[in-house]
Amino acid sequence: MQNSILEISVQLTEVFSTSKGAVYQSDKESCWYIDFAGKVACFDYRNILKLKKAIYGINIEEILMDSSKSADVEIVFICACDHCYVLTVLEIIAFKELLEGTFVMLNLNHIIQDRLYRISA
Amino acid sequence: MKDIIRIKSLISADVEALLNQQIKKEAQSSSAYLSMASWCDRNGFDNSAEYFFKQSDEEREHQLKIYKYVLDMGGTAISPEVTNVKIEYNSFREVFEEALDQEISVTQSIKNIAARCHKEHDYVTVEFLNWFFKEQREEEYKARRAVELFDLIGEEGTGRWEIDKHVGKINYNGQAGE
């Protein structure tokens, strides 16, 4: 298992990581590998945006304030995507932090590409 | 590292969200005009009903224009939900006052998008929006002129009938220049 992750990581660039997970980009496949909640899942451009929307859209405060007896888990299902997450509140917070960091880094990469390469090229 | 998001889409997520908001606004305007047409027709103001039907079609065209732009640029266009469409109006004048209000709000919101685009240096979208700015000149002019007719002609006697007759003739010749 350890070896297979290492093998993949050769072609991957780490975008952002926290103690709970990490996001890697594959330039060759134009997608992102998200290592979180015990699995590594691949997301393409459309799906990562759908995932971002789904996670950002979860009202964490509402779940925390909810006094009903139902379990504090959220099922994140992305349409037309093979992956699904069943997350606890703490995991949602950690996942949101991971995605926020990821999009900040992707944005930063965009700015760098724009300023350094596209203009000077 | 490749800039995948930029490769896939010309517009940023923020601009895309604003454009989707505008799509919804245009759809709401189109429905509101349709509702105004219905009210005018029910109350015997046939020319005004005709005018609002046309306006409704125009708003729908605007909606589609933005919709297709978002798609062409690699974004996700969202078909909007339109709710809370008014059915009744208190008076003939109120219908036109609301129409003007609506146009002012559309102009304002397009200005907002353009401001965001300028901030991001997204001149491609700015250029696209220029068509809308020009269109808003005409839209606001027509709506303002209609309200003006109420003051000029007056609603007494056959005033409303006269206003209705003139609403159909409102035309913007755009002499302010292309």
Automatic annotation (TrEMBL), chain A:
Organism for this UniProt entry: Pedobacter nutrimenti
Top-level taxon of the source organism: Bacteria
Name under which the protein is recorded: Uncharacterized protein
UniProtKB/TrEMBL annotation, chain B:
Reaction(s) catalysed (UniProt annotation): 4 Fe(2+) + O2 + 6 H2O = 4 iron(III) oxide-hydroxide + 12 H(+)
Subcellular location: Cytoplasm
UniProt keyword annotation of GTP-binding present: no
InterPro entries given in the database record: Ferritin, Ferritin-like, Ferritin-like_diiron, Ferritin-like_SF, Ferritin_DPS_dom, Ferritin_prok
EC id: 1.16.3.2
Keywords assigned: Cytoplasm, Iron, Iron storage, Metal-binding, Oxidoreductase
GO biological process, alphabetically ordered: intracellular iron ion homeostasis; iron ion transport
Top-level taxonomic group: Bacteria
GO molecular function ontology, one term from the record: oxidoreductase activity
Protein purpose: May alleviate iron toxicity in the presence of oxygen.
Similarity comment text for this entry: Belongs to the ferritin family. Prokaryotic subfamily.
Entry protein name: Ferritin
